[in-house]
Amino acid sequence: MNRIHAHSFGLAFAIFLAVWHSIWSFLVWAGVAQWLIDFVFRLHMITPPYKIAAFSLGTALSLVAVTTCFGYMVGFLIGTIWNRYALGSAGN
Fold it and tell me: Is the pTM of this model over 0.90?
């Protein structure tokens, strides 16, 4: 198995989460997030229990910043674990 660059994997996962939560923030701003979350819950046969709050730019920026940092840390950790253990079992 190939080695991966933990830093690059961390950045990729951080960007993925940043984009994902930016899209969510946009949906809240656009006023369609309630419909979407209700739809997803109903697909899972769950009565929708949540109400989407009013859009707040500060909260949206905090959401994106926190999930980006978390994404980097998790991605870096996964990359490090991959390099340590997945390669170790292949005899490299």
Answer: no
